[in-house]
Amino acid sequence: MKTAITGLTPEVEVPEEGLPISAAAAACGLSVDALRYYEREGLTLTPADRAPSGRRRYFEQDLSWLAGLVMLRRTGMPIRDIRAFAQVCREKDTEPERLAVLEAHRDRILAQLRETQGHLAAIERKINFYRESIVKK
């Protein structure tokens, strides 16, 4: 299965038997609890593979997907949108739908960025005002 978000795989040596949940979570910048939450919420592409002992094992494709989820969350994508994105990624030939989800998110981020840039400009004006006020004293 081709992951939808590439180039995000953490640089971690994944042994043939996979990584335990603690190592996978740490590699992706998650807590173990957060990784379990992502699995419960249906955000992973597939359920984690299990070792004969029943413990979860994660492989490179899992890490790549999880790193993509972390990136999307850090950009403010809501869990419901990530869940929808994961769902379309599980289905074949849904590239247009995947693209639409990411483009809509990009548009929201760009709008937030423009708003933040406006706030930053206002702060800069206030800083300049106070700097000039201090110099005049």
Quick tags:
5 helices; mainly alpha; Multidrug-efflux Transporter Regulator, Chain: A, Domain 2; 3 strands; disordered N terminus; 3-stranded antiparallel β-sheet; about 140 residues; single chain
Describe this structure in words.
The radius of gyration is 21 Å and the shape is elongated. The chain is mainly alpha-helical and 137 residues long. A hairpin with a 5-residue loop joins strand 2 (49-50) and strand 3. The longest helix has 42 residues, at 95-136. The model is unreliable at 1-6 (pLDDT under 50). A three-stranded antiparallel sheet has the order 1-3-2. Helix 4 runs antiparallel to helix 5. 63% of the residues lie in helices and 5% in strands. The protein has a single domain (19-136), classed as Multidrug-efflux Transporter Regulator, Chain: A, Domain 2 (Orthogonal Bundle), CATH 1.10.1660.10. It contains five helices and three strands. It has helices at 21-28, 32-40, 60-74, 79-90, 95-136, and strands spanning 19-20, 49-50, 56-58. The termini are far apart.
